[in-house]
Amino acid sequence: MTHYLRHLRDRLRVASYVRRQLRPFNHALPRLAVDIRPQGGYPYDVELRRTGDVLAIGITFHDRLLLHWHVRRRLAPYIHYLLESGLESACFTVATSDGQEPTQADFAYSSNDPSVQLLPDAFFFDHRGFAADLRLADETAISWNDRRDAIVWRGGSNGIGALPWPGSPPDNPRLAPRVSLCLLAREIEGLDAGIYESGHPFWPNDALDRLGLRRPARPEAEWLGDKFAIDIDGWTNTWTNLLRRLHYGCCVLKVESAFGYRQWYYDRLQPWQHYIPIRADMADLGEKIDWARTYPTRSSEVARAGQEFARSLTFESETRWAAEKIAQRLG
């Protein structure tokens, strides 16, 4: 396939995907003009330029097909917030990576750069503020005393760091945080932590099997019957895990982000009120788990406050908030 035909195909895919994602909102959608630019610069950054009834989308060309899929999947929320802001003229750059890639974007879903304005992420958008999880929690409504004490964590191997070698101590700072969690779990009674699939390009599943790190995936709804849950960064923040566990009424033990990654609502999230904080190196993991089990009344209060917090982040309220932030920054 020639470069021209490939670029034409990619432009059509991006425009079609964005229109499909925005169709339920009945926007007066501007004409989408997608431009695939030469390779270079910041490949996960996308320029959005609105001039009246035209919205230009500037994407950097990259040989990796995954990147184009990754980019187009995460564009629609930014465009939705822009249209809700009411701005007829605007030009800005958005980040479509998880947040760990180099960027010069004005807006992102996750970042450790305080100059970047964070907005509600693509999973929050796709799941309409996790409304289905809220309904499921209401329909199930398992009381605190009827929930399980055992703590289960499951996730991909996403994250910066190394795999362990046989006999490697779990506190080795070179290890990926999720790997360290799995190793620490072997020493903490009632903690089952495992990786259900490799999310790392150089870590095949059989390598995880040989190291004893793999566990079967767990249906999301099973956390509805748990008192506790753990949240720990992958490449950056977890996006879906934290809010879902809060919606399910779990008392979340949240491992601090080793690199300071944040999402749009983190300044409203308070330790010891909405979750139990764990140090980034997890040196206090066992201690905090013991505390949570020793003081069930206090843990249930944290779980209840966390659930109320998650419920306050509705799709409608956070869309308005995002639109206001865009208008403030660009208006």
TrEMBL record:
It comes from the Bacteria. One of its GO terms (molecular function) is transferase activity. InterPro entries: CAP10, O-Glucosyltr/Glycosyltrsf_90. Pfam families: Glyco_transf_90 (PF05686). The keyword Transcription regulation does not apply. The keyword Transport does not apply. Keywords: Transferase. Residues 93-316 form the Glycosyl transferase CAP10 domain. This is Glycosyl transferase family 90.
